[in-house]
Amino acid sequence: MTVQIKYCGCQSEEDYKLLIETKADLIGFIFAESRREVDPKNVNSWIEKYGKPKKLVGVFQNATLQKIKDVMNTVPIDIIQCHGTESIRQLKEIRNHCTKEIYKALPFGENIIEDIAAYGKVSDAIIIDSVSQGRFGGTGIPFSWKEVPNMMKTAERLGILCFIAGGIKPENVSELMRQHPHGIDLSGGIEENGKKNVKKIKTLERMIMS
Q1: Whole-Å CA distances, 161 to 9, 38, 133
Q2: Is pTM, for the whole model, over 0.90?
Q3: Residue 85 to residue 190: CA distance in whole angstroms
Q4: Distance (Å, rounded) from C-alpha 125 to C-alpha 163?
Q5: Helices (H), the chain
């Protein structure tokens, strides 16, 4: 299986112009409170200017259904990523009102296999992210990747993909690739001074493809 690459946290026109020229399969925009949060109108203007050669992901955190719909009315996202404490019932509600794919981010922990088995039944893909000092996502710290093969097997039994996020960067991506993830999700690991960096991206992609 070819690993899927998702670059998240696209913050500017400059970022978008760079990312659409990479080997990424998915580009993510954060529509939740974050230092990388973006305005849907700005995102739409970049898409109108440069086109949409990649699948686009809208990242939400405990958002109302109305907020998700409002973003979808402005930005032609392909995937809704729920990156909070959304319940299975809430995911079902989103699916009942939206035709987009749904990705659910889950915090790595001792019950992660059970969580994948439960949420995987109502999601098109799962993203496993790290938790640090109470923060879920955006920590820049990887979790232990020893459990990755079991996560992938659990997702495969459900017929879905499982992405790994959290602290992935060119310096350690080879270690992760040895665990055969379905996909990797990066943001800060390909940035320099808060901007996506072409040198880091090319180095990382070379490591993945080798």
Answers
A1: 20, 26, 28
A2: yes
A3: 26
A4: 8
A5: 13-19, 40-50, 65-74, 88-97, 112-119, 148-158, 173-177, 198-209
Nearest-10 crossing angle of helices 65-74, 88-97: 40
Say whether 165 sits in a helix, a strand or coil: strand
- Give me the torsion for CA of 148, 149, 150, 153, rounded to 10°: 120
Q: By 3-state DSSP, what share of the chain in percent is helix, strand and coil, each rounded to 5?
A: 40, 25, 40
Q: Which long-range contacts (CB under 8 A, 24 or more apart) does 82-85 make?
A: 83/32, 83/59, 83/127, 83/129, 83/136, 83/137, 84/32, 84/60, 84/136
pLDDT (tens digit, 0 to 9) for every residue of the chain, 210 residues total? 689 999 999 999 999 999 999 999 999 999 999 999 999 999 999 999 999 999 999 999 999 999 999 999 999 999 999 999 999 999 999 999 999 999 999 999 999 999 999 999 999 999 999 876 556 656 678 999 999 999 999 999 999 999 999 999 999 999 999 999 999 999 999 999 999 999 999 999 999 887
